[in-house]
Design goal:
The protein is an all-alpha fold. Helices cover 74% and strands 2% of the residues. It is built from 13 helices and 2 strands. A two-stranded antiparallel ribbon has the order 1-2. Strand 1 and strand 2 form a beta hairpin. Helix 9 packs antiparallel against helix 10.
Length: 295
């Protein structure tokens, strides 16, 4: 009996059971990640003539991207915008997360909930809200006219890169706030007390203790904001106008209006490779251990 009990406790005995439990995850990854990704890779080497996709191997889609300067130019513009949005989102979210974590005693949970409530609202509703704020007869123009700064509505707030940047920043701030706040909450209060006992003021404690220890959450938040801003196409479509065409819009148009799926797949893979490379460099020079993504 003791031998049977010891066999049941043996990890090897539990491996088939654990494998069976993991089958749903394997199936989910297979059908929703691996197969679509393999299909995209294969599609990028096909060609399109009219409404017909020819399944013959060709590098024409990648050659087209590197030989026509408009595509790399739009990609660089999208990368600059995504980097700007990520930096601004960090600058907006980090002070709020720091205040909620260290400064507030009353209303801490309430302010935390207020910071993540935008995630509960529909993505499209939030975009429409910003259109109503930045529009010719929107909230911003109405306030400026009411206080007498302008006499006629300004058109500079909407259908340009400024509208895209401010809306993407608003969208990504909660995704930066959550990992930063989580990282700050993991900092032991005893370390802060020790820094204070050793004579460090609040600024030195922040620069030498809090900021380095919160870097994992900061890097995770940067990754979230950068990836969301880089791949988004709905906000540029709704708020960007002719000046706001981004790389995501190019990919979307190839699968939509142009019906050039092979070229769209090639553009998607190029964006994926660049994103993975940037994220790999970020992970190399800054660990995300202890952040929102870590266990």
């Amino acid at each position: 009996m003791n031998n049977m009990y010891s066999l049941r406790k043996d990890p090897l005995f539990d491996k088939p059971r654990e494998f069976i439990k993991g089958i749903p995850i394997i199936v989910w990854l297979l059908f929703l990640v691996i197969i679509p990704f393999a299909f995209t890779i294969a599609m990028s080497f096909y060609s399109s003539k009219g409404l017909v996709i020819e399944k013959s191997f060709t590098l024409a889609n990648y050659i087209k991207f590197f030989t026509e300067p408009v595509y790399p130019r739009i990609l660089l513009k999208s990368l600059r915008l995504a980097l700007s949005v990520a930096v601004i989102a960090i600058g907006a979210a980090y002070p709020v997360a720091y205040m909620v974590s260290f400064k507030l005693r009353r209303g801490k949970n309430l302010l935390f909930m207020m910071c993540i409530i935008p995630l509960w609202v529909s993505y499209l509703v939030r975009i429409i809200a910003w259109r109503s704020i930045l529009g010719n007869r929107g909230v911003l123009n109405t306030i400026l006219m009411w206080i007498g700064i302008i006499k006629e509505p300004l058109t500079i707030f909407l259908y340009n890169r400024f509208a895209i940047a401010i809306t993407l920043t608003y969208i990504t701030i909660p995704f930066v706030f959550i990992p930063v706040y989580t990282s700050l909450e993991k900092i032991p209060k005893s370390i802060l007390n020790a820094a204070s006992d050793l004579g460090a003021n609040e600024m030195r404690t922040f620069l030498n203790v809090v900021l380095p220890l919160s870097m994992p959450g900061l890097i995770t938040g940067f990754i979230f904001a950068f990836v969301i801003a880089l791949g988004d196409y709905i906000i540029p479509l709704q708020l960007g106008g002719t000046q706001g065409i981004m790389f995501g819009n190019l990919i979307w148009s190839q699968f939509g209006f142009s019906f050039n799926w092979p070229f769209g797949a090639a553009l998607g893979l190029i964006l994926l490779v660049i994103s993975v490379t940037i994220l790999g460099l970020t992970a190399k020079y800054g660990s995300t251990e202890g952040g929102f993504l870590s266990e």
